[in-house]
Amino acid sequence: MRESVNLSLPCRPEYVSVARLTASFVANQMGFDIEAIEDIKLAVGEACNNAVLHSGNSPTYQLELKNMESSLIIEVKDSGRGFDKEAYKAPELGQLQENGLGLFIIKSLMDDVEIQTFEGNGTKIIMSKDVE
Fold first, then answer.
1. Hey, which bits of 38-102 come out as E strands?
2. What confidence tens digit (pLDDT) does each residue in 63-104 have?
3. What is the CATH number of the domain that holds 34?
4. Which domain holds residue 112?
């Protein structure tokens, strides 16, 4: 059964919980175990936080959850300023830093992560998790 859930959410931190709860519901319906659901919720929360923090003056961002039967594909897209993904460096875990952990967390929790971004033209994070 291939289904898709689409949300347009305000670029405000208090709405990230809506995205996390929606992802939790979809993952539960697909048969993910509780540990995988928690990983998905955390990854979605990080991606949405990034959209809220870095989308500039955009009033909303988009969340799409695609039930592909054997995997869940999640897209978080903003229309903000984008960033130079070639300049991104994974954080050094032995050193405290204020920014940069979100993508590291997403990549460590999800099976596949793709980032599409163009400076001045927004960012889309596409991540997937396979049902085991």
1. 60-67, 71-78
2. 999 999 899 999 999 988 877 666 656 666 666 555 668 889
3. 3.30.565.10
4. 3-130
